[in-house]
Amino acid sequence: MHIAEGYLPVSHAFAWTAASLPCALWSCRSLDLPGQSRPKRLLVAASAGFLFAMTAMKFPSVAGSSSHPTGIALGTVLLGVSAMPVLALIVLLFQALLMAHGGLTTLGANLFALGVAGPWAVRIVWGASQALRIPEAAGLAAASVAGSLATYAMTSLQLALAFPDPASGLASSFVRFGAIFALAQTPVAVAEAFFTLLVWRSLQPGLRKAVAR
């Protein structure tokens, strides 16, 4: 979902930056990392590492973008949706500056998709699964898939807004971008859910300690 450097019109790049910046500032204040206990800081590190590892596995997709796992479900469930914009910002900056993945001009758009839209989808599905008493593993898997697909739906919308179809307009362009993403991202999202469950289970001892403190 990383839109490449310089691919968005300048006005769109500024608009998405303006939309993402308050979310990142709110996230930074909410996370309050220096005030957290050591087990919770370790969970933050694990969530950020998983986010980076998943998003680093890229392959070309829609022109000007790339497809990969998102890695957002783990951090959203462990730390809450408020933690994700700042974690996503750190990962996106690192990848843009050192890996030529994404870009600085598209940082706001990529942050909104990965750090805002996706985590909120995870939060909604995870919360619904908890309310309905769905087994934890099934709820987390569903939330992971929902977050991944929501991230790419937002990227599709961003590309459609920037490049509407001259004949049929925004809706047609959104459907076209979304359909192309879906071909690659649906199986990727399912695989990501499997890996998220594996890491989630491996972190349970640390999670219990963090909750206890």
Q: Approximately how much beta-strand content do the residues carry?
A: under 5%
Low-confidence stretches: none
**Which sheet architecture does the biggest sheet show?**
2 strands, antiparallel
Compute the CA-based radius of gyration. Answer: 17 Å
Number of strands: 2
Using the coordinates shown, work out and report the CATH topology. Arp2/3 complex 21 kDa subunit ARPC3
Tell me the overall shape. Answer: globular
At CATH level 2, the architecture is: Orthogonal Bundle
Mean pLDDT: 87
Query: How many structural domains in the coordinates?
Result: 1
Helix content: over 70%
| Sheet/helix structural class | mainly alpha
CATH class: Mainly Alpha
Q: Numbering strands along the chain, what is their spatial order in the largest sheet?
A: 1-2
Q: How many helices in DSSP terms?
A: 8
Order of SSEs: HHEEHHHHHH
- Termini Cα gap: 37 Å
List keywords for this structure.
single chain; 213 residues; two-stranded antiparallel sheet; 8 helices
